[in-house]
Amino acid sequence: MKTNHYIHWKRNISVFLTSQTISLFGSSIVQYAIMWYITLTTQSGIMMTIAILCGFVPTFLLSPFAGVWADRYNRKMLIILSDSAIALATLILAILFLSGYESLWMLFIMYVIRSFGTGIQTPTVGAILPQIVPEEHLTKVNGINGSIQALVMLLSPMVSAALLTITTLETLFFIDVVTAAIAVATLLFFLQIPPHEKALQQQISYFADFKQGLVYIKNNEFLKILFIYFAIFFVMAAPVSFLTPLQVTRTFGEDVWRLSAIEIAFSIGMMAGGAVIAVWGGFKNRTYTMALSSIIFGVCTFLLGIVPNFWFYCSIMALAGVAMPLFNTPSTVLLQEKVEGDYLGRIFGVLTMISTSMMPLGMLIFGPISDFIKIEWLLLGTGVAMFVLSFVLVGNKVLVEAGKPKNMESSQ
């Protein structure tokens, strides 16, 4: 049965990644446009913090339910429904903007709606990949997916900046609607995935299902330690993730092309990092690959706080981008390998809760502070913290043991 299940996996993963790429491209164009609009019109750390909270808190609130949904319902239909809802909301916003109803709070509402969609998609996509791809190919496919996403993130800020110079913000909203429609149609008509086992079983209550997921984490020492590490790391990563556009605006100039340049540099690095991890696969022990990435990211964050030249700043951004797939791919594959299939949605849901609560928490701390002290000081401090935190990974026996290949584990 398992062999038959994966017999057309290459076709299915190609269709799935094509759909996700199209959807991500349209969404990224709009995301950059909205963020730059807020950055350039307000130049306020507090306004940036509000935007980040609108983009993360709804995902956090929905993740417990979304993780359960991903384990009990058809995962393909969940992705289709969330994409469709975001597209409908974007269409309404575009019409309102065309009618002259333009205001900052409407963009914040758009962030909230998109955040709900992300809350559904993140655990669902994480859970659906092992349903499509054989386990031995997960690292390569996740690496390829990372490179594709990086390519989209490379092109979308360039396209967004170019379009903003010749057209209006609402036109970009319509582009997002069209790409979402294409992505939904691709999934609906061309992707064939049989329902996973739990989706066919009699269901218990949402909270009982979610509680089972928490008990699963509680009884798994590897997951407990890894998730605690993630929580601390996400708080420390908030300034470099969200305050660098504001730093560039204040330090180097109020130009859209500069904001576009740092995003492009980061995306080029991510694309290179995705290619490296897809070809190389990382160290045999996945935990060591994650630690290497964390060290690079911490050093780059520190350097972004002391670099006086914009183009040198961009080159460090690119190096930071390289580090991202070296962390995301092995950590994702570790979860996909170590967690039972029926729990994957809930585990990725909890991970989404951690990222969407800790990064806003970081912004609640660092965002308002950035209006009173230099962002450079925040980057220096958090860079050192992430560098030190990296050695927790290689120093923890449970994480190192979990990172070993299965053949090494079974031989011991």
Automatic annotation (TrEMBL):
<feature type="transmembrane region" description="Helical">
    <location>
        <begin position="295"/>
        <end position="323"/>
    </location>
</feature>
<feature type="transmembrane region" description="Helical">
    <location>
        <begin position="150"/>
        <end position="166"/>
    </location>
</feature>
<feature type="transmembrane region" description="Helical">
    <location>
        <begin position="104"/>
        <end position="129"/>
    </location>
</feature>
<keyword id="KW-1133">Transmembrane helix</keyword>
<feature type="transmembrane region" description="Helical">
    <location>
        <begin position="264"/>
        <end position="283"/>
    </location>
</feature>
<dbReference type="GO" id="GO:0005886">
    <property type="term" value="C:plasma membrane"/>
</dbReference>
<feature type="transmembrane region" description="Helical">
    <location>
        <begin position="343"/>
        <end position="366"/>
    </location>
</feature>
<feature type="transmembrane region" description="Helical">
    <location>
        <begin position="77"/>
        <end position="98"/>
    </location>
</feature>
<dbReference type="GO" id="GO:0022857">
    <property type="term" value="F:transmembrane transporter activity"/>
</dbReference>
<keyword id="KW-1003">Cell membrane</keyword>
<keyword id="KW-0472">Membrane</keyword>
<dbReference type="Pfam" id="PF07690">
    <property type="entry name" value="MFS_1"/>
</dbReference>
<feature type="transmembrane region" description="Helical">
    <location>
        <begin position="378"/>
        <end position="399"/>
    </location>
</feature>
<protein>
    <submittedName>
        <fullName>DHA3 family macrolide efflux protein-like MFS transporter</fullName>
    </submittedName>
</protein>
<keyword id="KW-0812">Transmembrane</keyword>
<feature type="transmembrane region" description="Helical">
    <location>
        <begin position="226"/>
        <end position="244"/>
    </location>
</feature>
<dbReference type="InterPro" id="IPR020846">
    <property type="entry name" value="MFS_dom"/>
</dbReference>
<dbReference type="InterPro" id="IPR036259">
    <property type="entry name" value="MFS_trans_sf"/>
</dbReference>
<feature type="domain" description="Major facilitator superfamily (MFS) profile">
    <location>
        <begin position="217"/>
        <end position="412"/>
    </location>
</feature>
<feature type="transmembrane region" description="Helical">
    <location>
        <begin position="172"/>
        <end position="191"/>
    </location>
</feature>
<feature type="domain" description="Major facilitator superfamily (MFS) profile">
    <location>
        <begin position="1"/>
        <end position="198"/>
    </location>
</feature>
<feature type="transmembrane region" description="Helical">
    <location>
        <begin position="46"/>
        <end position="70"/>
    </location>
</feature>
<dbReference type="InterPro" id="IPR011701">
    <property type="entry name" value="MFS"/>
</dbReference>
<keyword id="KW-0813">Transport</keyword>
<feature type="transmembrane region" description="Helical">
    <location>
        <begin position="12"/>
        <end position="34"/>
    </location>
</feature>
